[in-house]
Amino acid sequence: MNKGKNLTEGNISKILISLAIPIVGASFLQMTYGLVDMIWIGRIGSGAVAAIGTATFFLNLGEALNSIVVMGGGIKASHSIGSKQNKELEEYINSSFFINLIISLAFIIFLFLFKNNLINFFNLGNLAIEKDAKIYLQIVGVGLFFKFANILYMRLLNSFGETKLPFKISCVGVILNIILDPILIFGFNLGVAGAAIATLISQAIITFMFIKISKRFFIVDNIFKIYSKKISEIISLGTPIGIQRVLFTGIGIIIGKIIADFGPDAIAAQKIGLQIESISYMTVGGLYGAVASFIGQNYGAQKFDRIKKGYKLAVLLSVILGTITTILFTVFPKFLVEIFVKDLKTVEIGINYLRIVGISQIFMCAEIVTNGSFNGIGVPKTPSIISVVFTSLRIPLAYFLGSIYGINGIWMTISITMFLRGTISPTLFIINLKKLIK
Does the predicted TM-score (pTM) go above 0.85? Predict the structure, then answer.
């Protein structure tokens, strides 16, 4: 088994940046799947965009459940690497893949059994859009089997301090998706189904690449050998994050239902806005992965001074990233939205989304980095509680502000709650860190 990189020694700035850059690149490439789909689907019209946007709410729910094993397994793997407990590490990895398999199969079955109920929940009032949404949900739903595995492979490799290989593998997947999208969407005239099939094929291919390349670091030899204690520990650590993300996604679905009352153009605008906004949270997601792995290993080695310095640097970098995206979203919103769609009403709603949500990007970035730091020290419950409490506020706040400012009131709700989470979470992490140092 390859020991990977030792993150408990050496220059902290160089380590974090060397870890973060490939993760940022890999995150951008993962994001590119959605961006490429959206750019091509946008050529069909806002209806097709709304169909994908509606289905994506429930696909995100699956990824939220998957975060239980990804986060729990990643935390335990990095702790084991830092404390040099190789046998423990092997058992945690095998247990992670076992849990991952169960979650993926169960969720895919759920999507197929309840696809009509899920899409009809939004009451879109357009049979063509609803049909496309169900098709996209089923095809990409099957692909979740591969996507869940890919996310877990990336997290485990990051725990070893290896971030370049996931980036290279993601490059292959994105290139395939870019090639297949126009061929299947327009060449074979498959429309929304073509975009879904392109994503499915790309995800499947990179799964097989991960299986082959990951053998340099660890062997998944028997995922059906049950390590009850390890499974319990992974689920215990990952569940707070999973609950947080499931509730976050569930609240997003309810907010999506409120947005749907303003028509398909509003749903399409939000979907496009989220794709553009992913530039921000995918970038800072690289720092999330870097700081989680860095702090995880140093926590295992009990090097608290390095944890403190690493966190400060990560927050500084996150603030810089947030400032850049705030400028982009508030100064160039029309240009960004029109990359995806030309429908005047959708463009207008999308511009307002970016300008309002753009104000809180710095706070969102600070929160994401802090959440990675909490996970690194094995305290995922605190950020989960913060996220659940303040994200839950979006529902009553959306109804209240929506009744006053219309669709812009919904965007204001998102921005306000991001500000609150992005100030409280760092404050509590600093308090926790001081207790650890003492």
Answer: no
